[in-house]
Amino acid sequence: MKLTSINNIPLSYIQSILKIDPVSPSGLTWLHRKDVPTEWNTRFANKTAGCKSTNADGYQKWGFKITYKGKQKGLLASRVVFLLQNKYLTKGKEVDHVDGNSLNNNHLNLRESNRFQNAYNSKTSKRNTSGHKGVCWYKTDNKWMVRITKNGKNHSFGLFVNLDDAIKVAIEARKKLHGTFGRDK
């Protein structure tokens, strides 16, 4: 289902207060507005919309708040850029950063994805012991194991004595299972 709003804020309203700006760090700039006090325009109009935040896992993003019909709503800059560029968001879909940089909200770097696809494009976990996605040490057999997840289901690709062999198999398996959303590092 295609939506022309975000958090019940219609696209037409968002278009009246924000514009895509590839030079802006967030990807968005506030427009001059007639519905706010002059002080607001002096402080914000034609300036970067949003602020950068970091969660406990170190994930960074650009976000901001919009007041619409008396209610303040939090928005992610990436979703707003996607909506402004494409004129829709699909219900139940997420916005994925193609290059894996969550701060790069250039419209060419954004694509819709499901939750699994978005995860395929994530960076290698800090807890990963091999340093390579889908490769872990299997203590029982003292070998490297290749296991790739697709749509919540694990797929095993064997055990390997040599780490380099396991890495090569993991890369090929990821290409096969994750397609363009696959990320090796």
Q: What is the structure about, briefly put?
A:
25% of the residues lie in helices and 33% in strands. The chain has 185 residues and is α+β, with helices and mostly antiparallel strands. The chain has a three-stranded antiparallel sheet with strand order 6-7-8. Strands 12-13-14 form a three-stranded antiparallel sheet, covered by helices on one side. It has a two-stranded antiparallel sheet with strand order 1-9.
Instruction: Predict the CATH topology of the largest domain.
Output: Homing Intron 3 (I-Ppo) Encoded Endonuclease, Chain A
Number of domain modules: 2
Structural class: alpha+beta
Which stretches are poorly predicted, pLDDT < 50 over at least 5 residues?
A: none
The strands making up the biggest β-sheet line up spatially as: 6-7-8
Assigned CATH class of the largest domain: Alpha Beta
Shape label: elongated
β-strand number:
14
SS strand fraction: 25-35%
Instruction: Quickly give the CATH architecture of the largest domain.
Output: Alpha-Beta Complex
Please compute the radius of gyration using only Cα atoms.
Answer: 21 Å
The largest sheet is: 3 strands, antiparallel
N-to-C span: 33 Å
**H-E order:** EEEHEEHEEEHEEEHEEEH
Separate helix tally: 5
Can you give the helix content as a percent range? Answer: 10-25%
Q: Mean of the pLDDT scores? A: 94
Overview of this protein structure:
The protein is an alpha+beta fold. The chain has 2 domains: 2-113, Alpha-Beta Complex (Homing Intron 3 (I-Ppo) Encoded Endonuclease, Chain A), CATH 3.90.75; 124-181, 2-Layer Sandwich (GCC-box Binding Domain), CATH 3.30.730. Helices cover 25% and strands 33% of the residues. The protein has 5 helices and 14 strands. It has a 3-stranded antiparallel beta sheet. A hairpin with a 5-residue loop joins strand 6 and strand 7 (60-68). The mean pLDDT is 94.
